[in-house]
Amino acid sequence: MRQLVSLVLFLAILPNSFGQSKNSALPISHLTGDFYVYKTFHDYNGTLISANAMYLVTNKGVVLFDAPWDETQFQPLLDSIKAKHNKEVIMCFATHSHDDRAGGISFYKQKGIKTYTGKLTDEILKKENKPRAEYIVPNDTLFTVGQYKFEVFYPGKGHAPDNIVAWFAKEKILYGGCFIKSASAKDLGYLGDSDVKQWEKSIKKVKSKCKAPQYIITGHEDWTDTQSLDHTLKLVQEYNNEKASGKLNKK
Description:
The protein is an alpha/beta fold and about 250 residues long. About 35% of the residues lie in helices and about 25% in strands. A hairpin with a 4-residue loop joins β10 (about 165-170) and β11. α6 (about 195-210) runs antiparallel to α7. The longest helix has 23 residues, at about 1-25. It is globular, with a radius of gyration of 20 Å.
């Protein structure tokens, strides 16, 4: 009898355990209104790192801002959106050329989803012989999708030479991707393609254009603290000051 009870408890717990394991790979958080932030994970040099991205549900379909970093989540994201909202993804923007942003271009393009990058991103992807988006955003552009309007613009060099951001002026939502560090970040992270000197000027351009954002979505780590843009500026200024004083070269 005891063995039977144990077996029943095991079978009851088993599906729930699998569900938690499956769901943990693609957590989706409601931001506000029709906006959602999703998180995926990637093994980078032996460390599991999370990446944030966003999608918007419109009456014309769903717009993705960056693809999952984990390629095994390309299709599950579409499935989750369909199950949750009963809508198809119709557009996908990659905010710069790194794999945590542009890695899904080929997959979503094959699915018939309109893919977009900035002009500089397209040039980098072409040079590196990587899949390129179907559509190029040559300049700062205002998009209207269903009942929503947003601007995709290039603030200047920063985390990457080609990083673009999206600004929803009415909703006061700034999607910064890797251009904006989390308020919890201790440093600027990967700087292999960065221009930290120009990053400061680029941040100030965003602050001037995007007044009083109520939500700021960062590329990695916690995105809930709206001090992230100011924090990124502080990290950039500290880095540039240390470099100018020669302290960085001594580390």
